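During the reporting period the student researcher (J.K.) took over the structure-prediction task from the postdoctoral fellow and processed the backlog of single-chain submissions. One of the processed entries is reproduced below for the supervisory committee.
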Amino acid sequence: MASSRLKSELKINKTKAAGKERKKNPSATMADIVETRLREYLKKKSFRPGDPLPKEMELAEALGVSRNVIREALSRLRMLGMIETKKRRGMVLTTPDILSSFERVLDPLIIDDKNLKDIFELRLVLELGLADLLYMRKTDKDIEELETIVKSENADETEFRLKNEIAFHGKLYEMTGNDTLKRFQNMLLPLFGYVIQLEKQYQPATVSHADLVKILKNGTKDEFKAAMTAHLQPHLQRLN
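J.K. obtained the following C-alpha cells:
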C-alpha cells in the first residue's frame, strides 16, 4: 500500500513538473518534454557509449510517463544516432555522428539566403583560425601539393575558379589533420558555387593562393594569419 501511494505521489510530482516545463515552452509537446527528461536521466545515471539501457517499461516508470511516450522519445534519440538496438543486448547508448544531419540538409537549393550567409561566415571564421593547426602539422609533401594546385590556377572563368577554390581550400582543411574540419569542408562544397554565383564582379584578393603557399613554406604563423585575413578580405567586405 505504501509503495502504491509512493508511486502515485511520484507520478503527480512528475505531472506537475511537466506542466511547469510546458509553461516555459508552450509549444512543447509531451514527447518534447520527455525527450529532454530522458537525456537528463541518462546523464544523471552516468550512462556512457556502449552501455545497455533499461527497457522501455523501466524508463517509463522512472520518468512517470506512458510507454508510448517513452517509445517516441527513444525513437527521436535513435534518429539522432544516440542509441541503437543490438542483438541480444537491446538498446545501447552510442556516440552520435554529430555532422550527419547537417550533411543531409546543407544544400543551397533548400536553405534560405540568411542561413547560407551565416554558414558562409562560419566558413570564413574557421579559415581565419586554421594557422595554428597548419603550422603544427604541415609537411613538405603538403606544400608541394599546394604548389601544384596553384600552378593550375590560370583561368578566370567561373568553372575554373570554383575548382581552384575547392582544391586549394580543401587541401588546407585536409592539412589540419582534423576529421571534423575535413568533413565540414566537404559539406561546404555546394556553398562555394553559391557564393561565386552571387558575385556580380570578381575582385581578386590582394593576397593570392600562391602568396599563402609561399608564407606557409617560409614564413611565420603570424604572417600567415595576416595573409589569410587579407586573402579573405573581399568576402568580408562583400558581407558588410
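The committee noted the following: The domain at 2-93 is CATH 1.10.10.10 (Arc Repressor Mutant, subunit A).
J.K. will present the remaining backlog at the next meeting.
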